[in-house]
Amino acid sequence: MIVSEKVGKRIATLRKTKGLSQEQLAELLHVSAQAVSKWETGKSLPETATLPLLSAALNHSIDSILLPQELVVLSAIYTDGQQELDVTQLVNQFVASDRLSLIPGEHLFPHSWTGSRLKLLLVTYETPDGMYSTFVMKDQPLTIDIHSNGYVSTSDELQIIAAHYGNEQAHRSVAAKMKHYEHFRWTQFTATHELFPSPIDYGGEDYLLLVYLNADGIHAVSCAEGEQIHYSGDRSHLYQTLSSQDQCIIEGIPRLGFGRSQDCSWAGAMTLALTARDIETTYEQVMGYSGACWRVAFEPVWDYSAADALVVYDYSIPACKAYGLSAHRANRLEPQQRTAEKLAILEDIRQGRPPLAINLRVAPEWGVITGYLAEGDVLLCRSYFDDETFSELEADPEFQAHMRISQGYLHVDQWPYRIIRLGEQTAAPSALENLYASLHIKLESMQPETHANSSYTSGYTALEVWSEGLLDHAWYVSADDEAFNRRLSVNHFCMMALADARRSAAAYLHDSLPLEHHPQQQAALAEMTEIYGEMAGLLDRYYKEMSDPAVLRTTGASPRDSWTTRQREQQAELLAIVASLEHRGDALAQTVLGLA
To answer: pTM, whole model, 2 decimals?
Structure first.
């Protein structure tokens, strides 16, 4: 039996475990913060359509959210103190009759990594008596029931609860050593045999592994001999750094830019981040796998942000699932939270995992963080605004000298307000499964939807609102030049985004044709490919004939003469054709999915 109060309490607990505010969770689910508040207070339950997204955001099955048990694993992280694997849903499957019993290891987590670092499972769980944390080393048994009392998080400074030195072949506890060293209140220390003597028969590289507790729960950090562990300023976190490396740059990441058949800045950044890790993909595949190729969004006040791929629907969630990637998302961090996030970014760079971020340079578009200098005081990036800088400073010898140091990357100028760090890659769905998932997103994203926490419109509603704005002749007559010019520029930018999305859809469908073998579904997919090829052609031809606001500014041409009433009417007619083709595409997508 579903009890709304228990469900609300479980959602609140899981949200806090993930470090999300009600506003951040609401943004991920495309609902209002008030809706999340009503769930958590038991005044209402999430709508059925929201449950898959809620499950993905909280990393818990729908059943574990709606049917809370007395013993629930809130978080389970398999880690070596450097890399980590979120295994919460898997571990929860071992809970039977309010009792958890398992032995962590490669047999249980086959997609974990190899290496000689010590590995362990960190578990945070809830019983009727409260919330506790515990840990168990690899290949050691773990048993928890509703009477188990583990470690309780504290709001004070971190507390080291275990320390080991060595490797998987041989290691020993150095907890007493760490307790002694804590007396000196070091801000950082280097893991050496002087501080942590090893027996003479140890073989292989040695590592220091520390397990500690803070207000956020239980954590583990490790470093190799010669590397450093340091405390955060408030002594609530521990971080590993390299003592010998004050810079790290991921080389060979190409430039981004509009007009290069990658006009969705998020998908362009995602493509670079994946290919930098030798994950074979294309921009069009990223657009297809994520479902961003089907998107159309519009803001009734005519704002550039409507072209951002994640502004209405977070397409990064299905994209990460399609490529078998875990992801950490940080949105609008407070200044005191940025230190920890920056250190995590530096570690990702050292691991060859460039993070995605928005608002790195000039304006809020997505880019990739490609490296760092000066021990992380300087971050490097690729953004959609680099070409102008390179053109302006091409002959500047000082700039060119710096480019040799930075491997051709520009500096990050401002702290991004959204960051996506991509974790380890595990088994991914098949290409056909990803196609079906993408078509489901297509059907969902085109339907009328009210976004309670924003004024953005999407799908058919967006096309209608956009067309109404184009045909509001009285507005264009009364608008001053500044307002007119802004609307012209926003219209051009949104048409660029729509043309790019449908071009990507046509390319993705064409590449997916060999995947489908059922005759009826194959025929539907082929027709759908033709329809989106036609749509892409119409949009591309119209977009190329549009007046470019940037060119108008340089030539001094009149924007009003370049964007006439008849041209706006023609665009509204084109959007009506697009809507008609989209409806046919919906019917064909349903046939491919076996829903017709």
So the answer is: 0.63
